[in-house]
Amino acid sequence: MSSCKNRDLSDNLPLDCPFSPLLTMSWVVDSRIAVFLPVALITISLISRLWKKNGSGQPLPPGPPQLPIVGNALAVDSNEPWNTYAEWGAKYGDLLYVRFFNQDVVVINSEKIAKDLLEKRSSNYSDRPFIATLVPFGLFHQSFRAEGALNFRPMQIRKTHQLLMNLLETPQNHMAHMGAFAASVIMSATYDYDMGPSDESFLRIVEGALSALRYMTPETTVVLNAFPFLLNLPAWFPGASMKRSAISSLKYVNEMIETPLQYVEKSIAAGTAGPSMVLDLMKKKEQEQPDRVAEYDQALRRASWASFTGGTETTGSILLYFVLAMVLHPHVQERARAEIDAAVGKDRLPDFDDQPSLPYIEAIAREIVRWQPIAPLGVAHATTDSDVYEGYYIPKGATIVPNAWAMSRNEALYPNASQFTPERFLDNQGQLLDPESPSFSFGFGRRICPGRHIGEASVWAVIASTLAVFEFSKAKDAQGKDIDFVPTSSVGLTRHPDPFPCRITPRPGIDAENLARLMDSTIA
Ligand code: HEM
Fold first, then answer.
1. Which one of 41, 55, 131, 308 has the minimum C-beta count within 10 Å?
2. Whole-angstrom distance, CA of residue 17 vs CA of residue 318
3. What distance in angstroms lies between residue 509's CA and the mean position of ligand 1's atoms?
4. How many CA atoms lie within 13 A of 271 on its CB side?
5. What angle do the packed helices 37-51 and 218-226 form, to 10 degrees?
6. What does the pLDDT look like over 118-149, one tens digit per residue?
7. How many angstroms separate the CA atoms of 222 and 29, rounded?
8. Which contacts qualify for 428-434: CB closer than 8 Å, 24 or more apart?
């Protein structure tokens, strides 16, 4: 592991979220901490320049000119850095070298280079610059691999049905319903914890824990990683405000980690524990040597926390882009409904067994993930050692940023890439061209998203089921005219659409009673 590991913030703050650091790469700094920055940066920059050697004699990858000390930090659009990298890519090539203060950053704008480095040379490119080591995520892959994820499908269908009822009752709250669906699938898959609609005390913990993550912004992690001594300042010290805020939220993080774990322990004792990642991990713990149990427990806590943080906002954001895509593209809904009506009929709702006969639904799912990458810069990797690729030197400890946004806008692969066109994934007979989704959406190599099978299944179930019973359209004004809008997005933990006016109405013949009957007739 790189030296970054020694400065892993999670040693001090247990906030291992795959999606928080380096998502936006903005570099705004707490004004009082800024007082420390100039002197410290100059010192660090000078020392590191004396130390940094390019042993291979090869040039660094091309990139834009740099300013002294800050490097390229001031030249990146802090709201949409992926666009800056894509523009630089067009000028300097798909493998870019940029520097932020003292940090080497290599940006990859092409899927081919990403595969060459992050997959084929995975052993060197699978560290993380700011967050936890690989160990807990190994546990993850064991439980959530493709076959394991099949166990969760009946639960995902049940949760989808709950979502349909919620959308029927209060369609105006669709954003909240999508978020609650995403969280409740993850809580079930991770802990077999059934989050009911009235589970307010638990929702409070979830909200608090998610707000704690918002303190782990890129700027916070950059500053704290560059100046770890700040973590040792007392919380009342001027400039330590982010530490104060993070600490005050930690109680939620701890509750979020401990409460469901205790629930699993109780369920095991009572003999009622259903399949979950934590149950798998607790069973495996019994095979650990006694002197390794404490370490294993720590890894288990990190894996379950990462599951929650990595799985909720990702799935929720994709579902919001789904609603947006449907509101903007009524003809896509029509084709999808025709496919569902022909393959499933009108006496039940779609089930995972219908997946092979619903290629257009699958194409919609893939196109949503391609059209609006919810992690436009993926999640940064880091090198454990220096390397040479196509004649370019890649330093040890470099942050490697796969620019999923640029990959999604590759006109050679995706003509008219900014348009939403599910048909691009189908051949002339309407069959899927490729057995898999575009790989850049879920990452690369050893760090590839361990929750992708669960995430993809959730997204598929919601698309197929909601289109079977609802119509999505633009909201109407007082005169009954469509309210037009220009879609915009924001970036939190993940990129997501801003609220937009829309109507979700039941298809003819669908009311609460009929919907309940359709659900009962669906094999789950
Ligand atoms: C459904 C949409 C999802 C998308 C688009 C997505 C995307 C990603 C991406 C791009 C990465 C970074 C991979 C890399 O570094 O190369 C990642 C990592 C991760 N994802 Fe997902 N994800 C999704 C759902 C989920 C779900 C449902 C879970 C949990 C059940 C999950 C848990 C994780 C974890 C724990 C990591 C970190 C893995 C590591 O650091 O080794 N994700 N995801």
1. 55
2. 18
3. 39
4. 0
5. 70
6. 999 999 999 877 544 444 555 566 667 777 78
7. 9
8. 430/359, 430/360, 431/359, 432/359, 432/362, 432/363
Q: Give Cα separations from 301 to 121, 193, 259 (angstroms).
A: 29, 16, 11
| pTM, full prediction | 0.87
Tell how far the Cα of 379 is from the centroid of ligand 1, in angstroms.
Answer: 9
Closest C-alpha to 449, from 318, 311, 316 = 311
pLDDT digit string, tens, across residues 361-377: 999 999 999 999 999 99
Bridge-based pairing of strands 399-402 and 103-108 is: parallel
With a Cβ cut-off of 6 Å, ligand 1 is lined by 18, 137, 140, 144, 186, 189, 306-307, 310-311, 314-315, 318, 369, 374-375, 378-379, 381, 441-444, 447-452, 454-455, 459
Q: What is the ipTM of this complex?
A: 0.99
Burial (CB count <10 Å: 0-12, 13-18, 19+), residue 130: buried
- Cβ atoms 374, 314 nearer than 8 A: yes
Residues 6+ apart with CB under 8 A from 166: 173, 177, 180, 197
Q: Considering Cα of 199, then 205, then 208, then 212, what sign does the dihedral take?
A: negative
CB 107 within 8 A of CB 245: no
Which is more confidently placed, 312 or 250? Answer: 312
Tell me if residue 38 falls in helix, strand or coil. helix
In sequence order, the β-bridge partners of residue 400 are 106, 381
Cα of 492 vs its chain's centroid, Å = 11
Pairing of strands 495-497, 489-491: antiparallel
**CA 362 centroid distance within chain:** 20
Tokens encoding 315: 């799935």
Q: What is the pLDDT of residues 34-81, one digit of tens each?
A: 445 555 555 555 445 444 546 668 999 999 999 998 899 889 887 889
Of ligand 1's atoms, which has the minimum distance to the CA of residue 131?
Answer: 40
**Side-chain-side CA neighbours of residue 52 (13 Å):** 17
Chain centroid, CA 89 distance in Å = 24
Residue with tokens 């307010």: 200
What's the full length of the chain, in residues? 524
